[in-house]
Amino acid sequence: MSMAFDEHIRRRRLLIPVLASGFLVTLGVGLFSFALPLVSLDARIGGAWLGSGFAGFYLVRLLAAPLAGAWADRQGARRPLLIASAIGVCAPLIHFLHPSLTALYATQFLLGVASGMFRPVGMAALGGMVERERLSHWFAVHALLFNLAMFIGPLVGSALYLGRRVEPVLFGLGLCMVAALLVVGLFMPGGRVERREEDAPDRDGPTGPWDWVAVLLAVGGRTLGLGLVAAFYPIHLAMVLGHKGLVLGALFALPSLAVCLGLPVAARLFGHGCRASLTLAGMTVSAVCLFAIGTSVAPWQLALFGIVMGLGAALSLPASMALASGLSPRQGRVFGAAHVASGIGFVLGPLLGGLVIQATHQVGAVFQAAALIGLLSCLPLLARVLMDRMHYGRGAALTLVGLCALVLAGAGSSMIHAQARSVDPGPPGLHRYTDVAMGTVVNLTLATDSRRSADLAARRCIALMRELQADFDHRNPEGSVGRINRAAGKNWVEPTPRAQALIRRAVDFARASGGAFDPTIGALTTSPFYYMMDEAVARSRRGLVDYRLVRFEEAGGRIRLEREGMALDLGGIAKGAIIDAAVRLLRAEGIEAGIVEAGGDFHVFGDRDWTVGIRHPRAEAVHRTLTVRNQAVCGSGDYEQFVVRETSAEAIMRHHIIDPATMEPARASFGVTVVADSAETADALATALFIMGPEAGTALLAEQYPGTAALWFGPDLSVIETAGFPR
Asked: For residue 355, what are the CA distances in angstroms to 177, 206, 293, 340?
């Protein structure tokens, strides 16, 4: 009796240090991971480096999980957690020894190792010390603390980076890691912790190879949906709602908030229920809501289904972890495998999304496919529930599950086939393709008799668009614009010939528009959420916005920005230039006619008429349609990215189109559509004419671009159009 009591006390002594140290490490990782993109953008670094930094973080975390779990099984949780904490303590020191952005990415890499060790080992220790009937409760507490740390971390990281210096962020990270190291070192006892026979789950807990497959498939199915939501939900929201303001951010965050609020409630109400049944119920609810999100068009629908989806995750998360804990007394092995399964799910989710978009031409179908796959991943667990809880025979259970699999697979294939066919194919010989490039959905409509030629041309077209985007995007440090921005006020940079030519044309547009269009507005717009900045901060950068300070070396083809802090942002012209390049490639590939559309901007080509629509800036409707041939149609509007700031007198909308003369959001228009011979011209003029307004804009077109037409929505919603605007 005394020995059992001592063992119980030892297990309880593990509880607080496991939870506290896990919270501290997650908090540190969260604050640094939030600040790193801000540091990268301020240093004119982003894109490829930022993506590779986070990819490396997730990769090493995935690799570290099973190794750390096996180590914990052999020597106990204390030593792996001490090593993980020590790695976390060393991570921020790299930058102090060698200050550079490369050092920050090395820090991110080490944090992936620490995080990959900490989470599975901590959960293994938790699973080994908690009594069977309390497993779901404590896993819910663990999940709640993890989500709270991921919520608080970005807030702390943003506060520490207010002075735009990375050192306070690194200090905060180091403080969290030192605190975690002290908690583990001072309060966590050593020794192995395995589940005792008397704590082993009853038949609610699986024990055989089939059960490993069932539980790990369920875990992977859930994280596949999470990875897909993280990659495609913002795009889906933007396409459905038509703008990218704080509403989108709030809707995106609602499921996570619902998880945090739902975890303690689910633990209290269902903590003693059948874990397999609760896992199935929660995942089914989440899958149904995920499917519904793919068909939702109203904000209230997206909010409702997002909240219920989060509540389903709150129900399934602790139950599935408690279920996994019963797979083996070797808890490190269990949770190492669980983290590998979850990591694979996160990787496969975005890949699945890309394939579904290509097949159906619809982003909403991505969520429906993920919902069906999530349900399919639960079927082995359903078979176990039917046999163990409902006393079905093995044959009957497998037959029923097989029928469910056939129904779901048939429904999924029928849905994808129907949605692919639902896109109007138009006349014979038209082939449609959808993919993601330039941060938006790209749609190609190609007219040719050869499907094989169309397929090949579409693949090459999307590849070219992504290649050009990487070169022109200021977020890519290895691209031409990224290199020029980093060297501002210091050195000459030799860009690629195509980037040099585009920058020259951008400066020409700036000169023609009298500075209304100015590619050096990047001194402001390359900062995250620049349109939310304090007005005084934005105006302080006015001296860095001047297209005349872009120097060109005629002999060598190099470019230099004269003042440190200057930056190019080709966002007002690059998309049009890339669309034009895509059209040229398609013509060279033998495509007779077609449409290249990206984010609402079009270039139609070939000897045929095409009909396109103009969106009303204050209504979810098409204002009118246009019939065009061999022309481009591009638009700009204040509804694309904005925030609404409430004051005592009124609500003020601050949007993303900045007037270089005032460094404030332009107010002369609500929206503008330009029809020109090239998408590049239409794209650049759409920005300039939005800022200039109808009167000055009409004069500019008459003087400089006589073959171009435009339509404005004025601040009073009046519609003004130039002569020759197509009907």
From this structure: 40, 34, 19, 23
The reported pLDDT for the residue numbered 201 is: 45
Question: How high is the pLDDT of residue 339?
Answer: 78
Q: What is the percentage of the chain residues whose pLDDT exceeds 90? A: 23
| Residues 220, 107 within the same domain | no
- Same-domain status, 302 and 284: yes
Does residue 107 belong to any structural domain of this protein? yes
At residue 256, what are phi and psi to the nearest 5 degrees?
-65, -40
DSSP 723: T
User: Span 353-377, mean pLDDT?
Assistant: 78
Q: Smallest Cα–Cα separation from 33: which of 117, 115, 118, 108?
A: 108
Tokens of 524: 């402001």
Dihedrals phi, psi of 147, to nearest 5 degrees? -70, -35
Task: Write the DSSP string, 426-466.
Answer: -STTEEEEEEEETTEEEEEEEE-S-HHHHHHHHHHHHHHHH
Residue 192 and residue 209 in one domain: no
Cα–Cα dist 367/226, whole Å = 10
d(CA 636, CA 692): 12
CA–CA dist 68, 84 (Å, integer): 9
Rounded alpha-carbon distances, angstroms, from residue 637 to 35, 44, 126, 303, 644: 30, 26, 53, 25, 15
Q: Within this chain, do residues 120 and 212 fall inside the same structural domain, yes or no?
A: no
Strand pairing partners for 118? none
Cβ 446 vs Cβ 430: under 8 Å: yes
The full length of the chain comes to: 727
pLDDT at 66 over 90: no
Total tally of structural domains belonging to the chain: 3
CATH of the domain at 667: 3.10.520.10
pLDDT digits (tens, 9 = 90+) for 642-696: 565 555 555 566 677 888 888 888 888 888 999 999 999 999 999 999 999 999 9
Q: What is the pLDDT of residue 74?
A: 82
Give, to the nearest 10 degrees, the angle between helix 331-360 and helix 47-75. 150
**Which residues constitute the domain of residue 623?**
595-721
3-class DSSP state for residue 243? coil
- Are 186 and 237 found together in one domain? no
Tens of pLDDT, residue by residue over 276-305, are: 888 888 889 998 898 888 888 788 888 899
pTM check: above 0.85: no
In angstroms, rounded to a whole number, what is the distance separating the alpha carbons of residues 630 and 609? 8
Alpha-carbon gap, residue 270 to 653, rounded angstroms: 45
Q: CATH number of the domain that 58 lies in?
A: 1.20.1250.20
Q: Is 599 left (phi over 0), alpha (psi -120 to 50) or beta?
A: left
User: Model confidence over 239-284: pLDDT tens digits?
Assistant: 676 545 556 667 777 887 888 888 888 877 776 778 888 888 888 9
pLDDT in tens, 578-598: 999 999 999 999 998 999 998
CA 434 to mean position of chain CA atoms: 19
